[in-house]
Amino acid sequence: MTDLRLMRGMKTVRAIIRCLAIAAAGSTLLAGCGSRKEMARDIRVARAKAYQQWENRKVGEDEQQPHISGKLSLEDSVKLTLINNKMLRKAMGEREAARGAGVEARSVYLPSLSLSGEYQRLDEVSSFEIDTPEGTQKLQLGDVDNYSVGLTVSQPIYAGGAISAQVRVAKLASLFADQTIRAATQDVVYAAQTAYYDVLLSQHLVEIGLDAVRSSKAHLENVEKRRAGGVASDFDVLRAQVELSNFEADLIRSKNAINISRANLIKVIGISQDSDFSLSEEFVFAPMEVPVEQAVETAFRNRPDLYSQEVQIRQQREQLRIARSRYLPSVGAYFTNTWAKPDPKSFASPTIEWGDTWVAGVQAAWPIFDGFQREGRIIQQKARLRQAELGLVDIEETALYELTQALLSMENAKEFVQSQRLNLKRATEGLRLAEVGYEQGINTQVEMIDAQAALTTARVNYYEAIYRHVVAKLAVQRAMGTIVGGSVTDRSDAEPPAEPGRN
């Protein structure tokens, strides 16, 4: 009998070896298939397919993006941004992820149910014979074919406080997701408003450039007429031509800047690049006075990064509780019902039938020593909790720095606007006097050109001052965490940037 079993075992081993050898040979053959040229061709085809996929995806995205036309206000641009901005839509997914984490955490309170099945084939089973009044009867211990199906229900009862701590971590994760979305909303609204004013500034710079080119052309024509009359020289004409070329170069740069800023606004809003719209808003100089104490209080109450860090500290405290819970016992209940063939309750039977058995109980475990793993985990969580607390202090200091910087920038921008307003009046009057003096022969052409250049520079500085002030106010609101829902300008105190001496 022993020799027969040995022979069967050797046959099985040889069959397995043959199968493995055939599989290895097939793998080697497949791996060696294909020349270097074929591989390079496959790579080129893959890259061509990648480009085609990108092109199809681009066309699909263009069709999905909204196309707008007509007047675009600042309020509408913010609304469109909140609807279409891809970064914000991506951040919105954090809320759904947090909801899933909450469902997962609460599930620890519920029992778990598992179903298992098994089939086992035996080479042979033991048997023995017994003498009975009817004669000799052979009984076998089991069956060659064995089947079993098990249903297990387990219910955690106590885990040292870890279960409730995990649920609290999930709830805090939901709060963290809300603050993440709020921070993303503040960022995209700030980006949209800043991009809107970038386009508005670029438009004014283009208008200034066009006015400068028109004035320079008119001056060149005047100089050429004066040269024809013998009053001006070739140098005067050349000087006027150089002035015109300089203004035309500035105009080209301004037009390029407006195209770039417009493309950026479209990207931030999330609309089609083929949209044809014009801005309906205008720069408004509306000074905003915010006491430092009030600004700091508002920032501490509203900034989403501070809220997020507070949530992280509380999450870390719960993680520390979970680590400490490993020192406490865990208790759980279980119930298992098993259906099997042969019947698990029959030890030996001439007939093989299905049967079932069940077991239920309560299991408790209290770890005594685990090689200092628990202590190491607690040390880690304590360190991370300390890091989170220090992180909150760092974010508070960063908030104070950003707020101080924004308030100072806003105040400096206010002074810059006031100084450039006066400078614009002076430049306008200076050009008028230079024109009169040039016609009367009192001022030279160089003085005339300098006066025109000074007015152009003053107009550019004036609109840049207005732009800096508006953007500085946005930075203050962002630093306080109130840019969403807050008014950019106080219309009751608003003052449009009318240029002195211009209609």
Overview of the structural elements:
- The protein is of the alpha+beta class and 503 residues long.
- It has two domains: 112-158 and 330-365; 165-317 and 377-493, Outer membrane efflux proteins (OEP).
- 66% of the residues lie in helices and 13% in strands.
- The chain contains ten helices and eight strands.
- The protein has helices at 2-32, 36-64, 74-84, 86-106, 162-228, 234-269, 292-302, 304-324, 373-439, 445-480, and strands at residues 69-72, 112-121, 127-132, 135-140, 145-158, 276-279, 330-341, 355-365.
- The strands form three sheets. Strands 2-5-7-8 form a four-stranded antiparallel sheet, with no helix packed on it. Strands 1-6 form a two-stranded parallel ribbon. Strands 3-4 form a two-stranded antiparallel ribbon.
- A hairpin with a 2-residue loop joins strand 3 and strand 4 (135-140).
- Helix 3 packs across helix 5 and helix 9 (373-439) packs antiparallel against helix 10.
- The longest helix has 67 residues, at 162-228.
- The chain is elongated.
Keyword list:
503 residues; 4-stranded antiparallel β-sheet; two-stranded parallel sheet; alpha+beta; 2 domains; Outer membrane efflux proteins (OEP)
| CATH fold-level topology of the largest domain | Outer membrane efflux proteins (OEP)
In oligomeric terms, what are we looking at? single chain
Helix content: 55-70%
CATH superfamily of the largest domain: Outer membrane efflux proteins (OEP)
| Rounded mean pLDDT score | 83
SSE topology string: HHEHHEEEEHHEHHEEHH
Beta-strand percentage range: 5-15%
End-to-end Cα distance, whole Å, is 117 Å
Number of strand elements: 8
Largest sheet, in brief, is: 4 strands, antiparallel
- Please, how many helices? 10
Structural class: alpha+beta
Radius of gyration in whole Å, from Cα? 41 Å
What is the global morphology? Answer: elongated
Low-confidence stretches are: 486-494
CATH class of the largest domain: Mainly Alpha
